[in-house]
Design goal:
The protein is an all-beta fold and about 170 residues long. The protein has no helices and eleven strands. Helix content is about 0%, strand content about 80%.
Amino acid sequence: TSVAVSGSTAGGAASGNLIFTGKVMAAVAENATVSGDAGIIVKAESSEDIDAAAVGAGVAGSTGIQGSFVVVVMNVTTQAVTGENATLTTENTLSITAEDTVRVLGITGGAAAGGSAAVGAAVDVFVFKNTVTAHIGTNNHVVAGELNILAESDRRIGTYVMMVSAGGTAA
């Protein structure tokens, strides 16, 4: 949040920034032997829930300037895997799943006012490089009544951006 007030010229900036890197992994080791009468589950699950906001105002007798910015950069790796040469045995279900859920809400706004001029900008930027992987490694020996392999990604992204400028001569 930023507020700038002046009799002549006022300038302000509000910024909300997040850079996030993460890794979630569920794995069966190389050369492992796993068996289960009730089934085998290898599951990696990640969830990111982000609210980012930047709101500001620049008010002056002559020139009001305001900028509000939200930047979210995310790099998350979610993996459910089996290593090389693993043996997996079950009469029921072998399930290998990787799931990543992201919910982001960006709220950016501002107001600029000046007796002569007002300039304002509001910007939301979201950059996602999330990787979701589910796989069986090379040379695995698999015996299962049912096999489920799933890699799933769910994104819920919302953004609200507003900027108001008012000046006597220019806005």
